[in-house]
Design goal:
Layout (H helix, E strand, L loop, with lengths): L19 H28 L3 H35 L4 H30 L5 H26 L13 E4 H13 L6 E6 L7 E4 L1 H18 L5 E12 L3 E10 L15 H8 L3 E7 L2 E11 L29 E5 L3 H11 L5 E5 L2 H8 L6 E4 L8 H12 L8 E5 L6 H7 L4 E4 L4 H11 L1
Parallel strand pairs: 2-4, 8-9, 8-10, 10-11, 11-12
Antiparallel strand pairs: 1-3, 4-5, 5-7, 6-7
Helix pairs in contact: 1-2, 1-3, 2-4, 3-4, 3-8, 5-6, 6-7, 9-10
């Protein structure tokens, strides 16, 4: 998305005393954009058979990228220094990481997509070797950004947030997936998932994610010498009038102190369990530890909306499954480069793709055209993706229509996925992503 050149005075990033921080950030942003543009031109020239010029541009684009990555390392050091200096302010820590994460994910996503497209093109061997190194460097940066994102798990203060509908199994699986993004993740997970639909509930999924991420980090620190097997299973403990207690069993194949004797004062996980009116018990042996957690979750609220009377001759429309090439997509994205990158990915497979620069433009286009799918950015001017999705769902209320919405966003902090789903968005994919992952997601949702 388009970022403002200046931030409000209260922004933690601009308050950082290191004068090079903003300079490095702009360098990374500008050089990343330049490398993307150069590589896009290289792809276009390849299509016209101009391999020599295209090869030179690939080398130039890779050189620009390497320069930007060197500066990005300085930027990461500045972020870590900001986190250390903001140790007394959880809010400032979250601001620093969230701002950095969003700013770096946008250009990283463009680089990942362009590199994927170049690898599929007719490059010479030396050029492909260079692109492979380019991809490896990009993946290393993606790993670093993901690990910085994970640090926010311990920085959230316990505060009342909007209760939303979510699935406990899905939330735990999403947390495992997030943890597994680490380059040297040393935990092997076994997650026993049964009766998926029995674990729908109402509440705050962020708290559940915080608990599990804290436990995963504890296990990793104490069992770092070798991989640790972590087995997770769920059961329904008991039902009350408005809520159900869910039992969560976490077992390791080593002796590990998951929650210390000082209980709520010792671990984030134990504090959050107690503040959520839950309880826990731990038992250990020579080669195992078991932590049993019981927490209450509200039964899901089912919103019943009055059906609108049908006009004479109207009936319910049966959704017809279409081939990928035949669908009509609306891409809502305010950044023109991001638009081009997504179009480059999808145009060979989809014949009809319209674009809109913000949520309001998307609403205007929906009033005059029919779409099979909406790809929605979140941070946009005029009307952001969350508000646009909520308005689309309001318009659909009481009708037989439902346009699938997939969020494609650089908002990848611990609660962003749940915010999207709560607004009526069907699927969520965070930047950076592989083009094949987006295409597979579209196929699944259709």
């Amino acid at each position: 998305m388009t970022e403002p050149e200046s931030q409000p005075q209260g922004n933690a990033v601009n308050q950082h005393p290191d004068q090079n921080f903003e300079k490095n950030r702009k360098f990374v942003e500008n050089y990343s954009i330049a490398s993307v543009l150069v590589l896009i031109v290289a792809i276009i020239l390849l299509a016209f058979g101009l391999r020599l010029i295209s090869g030179c541009l690939v080398i130039a684009g890779a050189a620009l990228f390497i320069l930007s990555m060197r500066r990005a390392l300085d930027l990461i050091k500045s972020v870590k220094q900001s986190l250390a200096e903001a140790s007394t302010s959880n809010e400032r820590k979250e601001d620093v990481i969230a701002d950095f994460s969003h700013r770096i994910r946008e250009p990283l996503n463009n680089l990942v997509v362009i590199a994927d497209l170049l690898m599929a093109s007719e490059l010479q061997k030396k050029q492909k070797d260079l692109i492979e190194t380019f991809i490896a460097s990009t993946n290393n940066m993606v790993t670093t950004v993901n690990e910085l994102t994970m640090q926010t798990a311990g920085n959230f203060s316990y505060e009342a947030r909007k209760n939303i509908r979510f699935n406990i199994i899905s939330t735990i699986q999403n947390t495992i997936d997030l943890y597994s993004l680490k380059e040297k993740a040393s935990l092997d997970f076994i997650f026993n998932k049964k009766d998926y639909h029995e674990y729908e509930c109402q509440g705050d999924p962020i708290i559940l994610k915080q608990i599990f991420l804290d436990l995963f980090n504890t296990i990793e620190k104490q069992g770092a010498e070798s991989p640790t097997k972590v087995t997770i299973s769920l059961k329904k403990d008991r039902d009350l009038v408005n809520e159900r207690y869910i039992g969560m069993r976490i077992q390791t194949d080593k002796y590990i102190v998951l929650i210390s004797d000082d209980g709520t004062s010792g671990h984030l996980a134990s504090r959050l369990i107690s503040l959520s009116r839950g309880s826990f018990a731990q038992e250990s042996g020579i080669n195992y530890t078991v932590l049993n957690i019981s927490m209450p979750f509200l039964f899901p609220v089912t919103e019943i909306k009055p059906a609108q009377p049908l006009k004479p001759g109207e009936g319910l429309k049966e959704r017809v499954r279409k081939e990928l090439k035949d669908i009509n997509i609306l891409l809502v994205e305010d950044n023109l480069i991001n638009q081009k990158i997504t179009l480059l990915t999808l145009k060979p497979l989809v014949n009809s793709i319209d674009t809109a620069s913000n949520g309001k433009e998307a609403m205007d286009k929906l009033s005059s055209s029919d779409y099979d799918l909406i790809l929605m950015d979140i941070q946009m001017p005029v009307m952001n993706g969350i508000i646009a999705a909520e308005k689309i769902r309001e318009l659909e209320a009481g009708t037989d229509t439902h346009i699938p919405i997939v969020a494609i966003t650089a908002n990848a902090m611990i609660g962003d996925r749940e915010k999207c789903l709560s607004a009526g968005i069907d699927e969520y994919i965070s930047k950076p992503f592989q083009p094949a992952a987006l295409i597979e997601k579209i196929k699944e949702i259709l």
